[in-house]
Amino acid sequence: MALKPLSDRVVAVVLKPLEKTKSGILLGEAKEKPAYAEVESVGPEVKNVKKGDKIVYKEYSTTEIKLDGKDYIILKEEDVLATL
Fold it and tell me: What is the CATH number of the domain that holds 75?
């Protein structure tokens, strides 16, 4: 089942934070971790984000959904802080 966002909404899959760097250094637990996700689909009014983009978003402004074993979030385009 695919989620089709409406208006200026973005549907993304939550990415797990890195546990170690490319060079093998283990990273510790931070109290406040950045929130990362990969965009699955965008609504018709979204202008600056496209499917496949990796994004940093405001963690407390999302709707979380678990569907087919994956964790999805739905958020407004204005809550996307940056693309990677």
Answer: 2.30.33.40
The full DSSP string for the chain is: ------TTEEEEEEPPPPSB-TT-PBPPPPSSPPPEEEEEEE-TT--S--TT-EEEE-GGG-EEEEETTEEEEEEEGGGEEEE-
**Structural domain includes residue 41:** yes
Q: What is the pTM of this model?
A: 0.79
pLDDT tens-digit profile of 18-27?
Answer: 566 667 766 5
| pLDDT for res 52 | 96
Say which residue the tokens 């250094």 belong to. 25
Whole-Å CA distances, 64 to 20, 27, 29, 81: 26, 26, 22, 18
Backbone angles phi and psi of 59, in degrees to 5: -65, -35
